[in-house]
Design brief:
The complex is a heterodimer of chains A (285) and B (220). Helices cover 38% and strands 24% of the residues of chain A. Chain A has one domain: TIM Barrel (Alpha-Beta Barrel). Chain A is globular. In chain A, strands 1-4-5-6-7-10-11-12 form an eight-stranded parallel beta barrel, surrounded by eight helices. Chain A has 285 residues and is an alpha/beta fold. The two termini of chain A are 27 Å apart. Chain A is built from twelve helices and twelve strands. Chain B has 220 residues and is an alpha/beta fold. Classes of the chains: A alpha/beta (285), B alpha/beta (220).
């Protein structure tokens, strides 16, 4: 077994780090680079940048953020959001990303997974599956931040993505995303049993026990965490001084009741105390 | 320092810039090149790589880089391979049938099995942080770019294939993945190569680059 990865996920809109609930209702939290650097120093295992409004805005600020990150932070960076073509993928990799994540483009034309994994190596291609649980208990894949129902059943889609050459799957429960009510363990379990590639669980982390459950009960190889980490860091003095934007709700000390702010180190110490292999770095930067 | 000629060999595959970034971070300029002349004039060469073994070998042959790279390595000057750049040093790979490698080290490249002996699923590719450990038979870390690295340190891995050297004396470190102990770095004379990505392994990985770069000398 290798160590369970804790991956801060930074949703990016223009030059800002934002966070919503169910992938919507975005609030500005600050500068993504500042948060990323802090997480790197705290022992983040990878970073994930999602351009949440890629189809609506120009991408220059995203490329700047990727390139600055790649020059300063020496851990893997996955970038996703609005990548449509092989050229889009190439440009993001050239800017400094190590992996890309594909959702809408892969649903529209699954062959892009095969083309991209042959061209850039399968470990470079992550397929993002955003899932909403239906009334009858089935799980369907959605695109456009959970707005568009594709009519595609999530478990068979995960299998197909793997067959086409996806090196990893990042699995979002849109129902749980931003709520802090815990992961959809049943969903994670179904997907990890269906595929042999690593699965990154995302959506619902409110405290370290939720993360331990996604790993132990769900079988996830990694966990993407946003609110829990962002609210923890945004509440510190350093972050507040450097933050621009609509952060009144942070300054007021109010967060979402179900989300306990935690640092990466606190999460990892909790996992280690619960006999889950995790990398706690002793390196000073 | 500025006169050192460190070449990152570009054969059309993989993220060369992350290797360049870490060297720059440490104050070393590098040249990303696929020109044979640069290879022959280099004081040190880094061979990175992500992707498929056969594509890489084909691409190196297509660019006429195999013979000059072998010449460079036999010159005794520092050489570092990373990930696929380590696998390419071996004689052959079982990826997509059988392909021949550079044959600098004797041994073969094998795929991780899909399940362990007890039938438990093994997730492939291995993606993530895993520990590296010294071996009794192999070279000692104190005489290598791992000299400042503590036994059991975590490094970042991404791979579906692993190297099985014929001769254990080149195995600098081993790593355990799902019950399989495999070779995670090699050292033989001037050749140093890692299966993991030191340029993606945060502080300890940067240290490995620093140690390796500090061993480079200007040559005529």
């Amino acid at each position: 077994m290798n160590a369970i990865r804790i991956i801060p996920r930074l949703d990016i809109k223009g030059p800002n780090l934002v966070k919503g609930i169910h992938l919507e209702g975005l609030r500005v939290l600050g500068k993504p680079e500042e948060f990323a650097k802090h997480y790197y120093e705290q022992g983040a295992d990878e970073l994930m940048y999602m351009d949440v409004v890629a189809s609506l805005y120009g991408r220059n600020s995203l490329f700047d953020i990727i390139s600055r990150t790649a020059k300063e932070l020496f851990i893997p960076l996955t970038v996703g959001g609005g990548l449509r073509t092989i050229d889009d993928i190439k440009n993001v990799l050239r800017a400094g990303a190590d992996k890309v994540s594909l959702n809408t483009a892969a649903i529209k034309d699954p062959q892009i997974i095969r083309q991209a994994s042959l061209k850039f190596g399968c470990s470079t291609i992550v397929v993002a599956i955003e899932v909403i649980r239906q009334g009858d208990g089935r799980y369907f894949a959605f695109t456009d931040n959970g707005r568009e129902d594709t009519g595609i059943e999530a478990i068979s889609w995960a299998r197909q993505a793997e067959e086409l050459g996806a090196g990893e799957i990042v699995l979002t429960s849109v129902d749980r995303e931003g709520t802090g009510t815990g992961f959809d363990i049943e969903l994670i379990k179904k997907i990890t049993e269906a595929v042999s590639v690593p699965v990154i669980a995302h959506g619902g982390a409110g405290n370290p026990a939720h993360i331990a459950a996604a790993i132990r009960e769900g079988g996830a190889s990694a966990v993407a965490v946003a609110s829990t980490l962002h609210y923890g860091y945004a509440a510190t003095a350093t972050a507040r001084d450097q933050t621009e934007g609509n952060t009144e709700f942070l300054k007021s000390g109010r967060t979402f009741s179900k989300i306990e702010p935690h640092s990466i180190r606190e999460i990892k110490e909790y996992l280690a105390n619960n006999s889950i292999d995790t990398r706690i770095t002793d390196h000073t930067f | 320092m500025q006169e050192l000629k460190i070449v990152i060999l570009d054969y059309g595959l993989g993220n060369l810039f992350s290797v360049q970034h870490v060297c720059r971070h440490l104050g070393y300029d590098t040249l990303v090149s696929h020109d044979r002349k640069d290879l022959l004039n280099a004081d040190a060469v880094i061979l990175p790589g992500v992707g498929a073994f056969r594509d890489a070998v084909d691409s190196m042959h297509g660019r006429g880089l195999v013979a000059p790279l072998k010449d460079f390595i036999s010159s005794g000057k520092p050489f570092m391979g990373v990930c696929l750049g380590m696998q390419l040093l071996f004689s052959e790979s079982e990826e997509f049938g059988s392909s021949e490698g550079l044959n600098i080290l004797e041994g073969s490249i094998k795929k991780f099995p899909s399940a362990d002996d007890a039938g438990n699923k093994i997730r492939v590719p291995q993606i993530g942080w895993n520990r590296i450990n010294e071996t009794a038979e192999g070279p000692k870390w104190k005489d290598s770019p791992l000299h400042s690295i503590r036994e059991g340190s975590y490094m970042y891995f991404v791979h579906s294939y692993y190297a099985k050297p014929a001769n254990e004396s080149c195995i600098l470190s081993v790593t355990e993945y799902e019950g399989l102990n495999y070779c995670s770095s090699v050292k033989q004379d001037n050749v140093f190569a890692t299966q993991f990505h030191p340029e993606k392994s945060a502080g300890h990985g940067i240290e490995i680059y620093r140690n390796w770069l500090e061993g480079i000398r200007i040559t005529d």
